[in-house]
Amino acid sequence: MRLRNVKGSREKISASAFVIHEPEQQKGNWSEVFGNDNPIHIEIGMGKGQFITTLAQQNPEINYIGIEKFSSVIIRAIEKQDELQLPNLKLIRMDAEAIEEVFEKGEVARIYLNFSDPWPKDRHAKRRLTSRQFFARYNTILKEDGQVIFKTDNRELFDFSLEEVVEAGWNLENHTFDLHNSEYVEGNVMTEYEAKFSAEGKPINRLVASREVKGE
Ligand code: SAM
Questions:
Q1: Ligand 1 near 115 CB (within 6 A)
Q2: 82 in any annotated domain
Q3: 95 lines ligand 1 (CB under 6 A)
Q4: What are 132-149's pLDDT values in tens digits?
């Protein structure tokens, strides 16, 4: 995925009107960035952006923010958005470790994590986007009834994530070890990695996690 040294990518990112360059300054103001109060859904580690650009096209009443840490990758999402010019899609180049500096408490309604890097060594577990450390960050920025939706082909990472949901004190709303042959497949939008892995015959795992809504 990591296309190193894509020529001119930093310049193109700086010039793009769809990229929010100092996202910390928009903390608490994302509705103003979009010019409406629609719910905000983010994808962390969006890669080349196929998933989030498709969702933004399908759901104009939702505001989407795609987050990607590498310039050489986000540039592909910028090229898609340059063609599509979707008013409900913004992009941020950042490491999601700093996500609480960018979104106010409860500012985000949904977080998508798709085919996140597995970080297989135990000592790197806290870098996994479904680690308890990341769930603690999501706990801050997500609305009370917000959801984290995670897909992966990696069964070890998925099993780890199922445990971390519980460890973090979240509810597992539902999960499947074979999304494409499950009741949850309807309306599924494929990511680049998902298209590749499912074409190879690999089953796709998916979970939906949320917090207990107080008063229920
Ligand atoms: N979501 C895409 C898909 O399913 O096709 C891309 C999957 S790719 C394996 C994972 C992406 O997440 C990479 O582009 C990587 O740079 C990005 N990523 C990993 N950790 C990240 C982090 N902490 N913050 C932002 N992006 C991250």
A1: yes
A2: yes
A3: yes
A4: 999 999 999 999 999 999
Q: What are the beta bridge partners of residue 172?
A: 209
Q: Is 73 in the pocket of ligand 1 (CB under 6 A)?
A: yes
Active site residue 153: no
User: Is the Cβ atom of 153 under 6 angstroms away from ligand 1?
Assistant: no
Domain extent at residue 56: 9-13+26-210
- Ligand 1 closest atom vs CA 194: 4
Q: How many C-beta neighbours within 10 Å does residue 35 have?
A: 10
User: Does the CB atom of residue 44 touch ligand 1 within 6 A?
Assistant: yes
Q: How many domains does the chain have?
A: 1
Tokens of 92: 């941020």
- Residue among 86, 39, 95 nearest 67 (CA): 95
The CATH number given to whatever domain includes residue 158 is: 3.40.50.150
Q: What atom in ligand 1 is closest to the CA of residue 70?
A: 16
Helix axes 50-58, 192-199, angle to 10 degrees: 110
**Maximum C-alpha span of the chain:** 54
Q: Flag whether 18 is in a domain.
A: no
How far does the chain reach from its first CA to its final CA, in angstroms? 43
pTM for the whole thing?
A: 0.96
The catalytic position among 37, 82, 95, 117 is 117
Residue 116 CA to ligand 1 center (angstroms) comes to 5
pLDDT tens string 23-75: 999 999 999 999 999 999 999 999 999 999 999 999 999 999 999 999 999 99
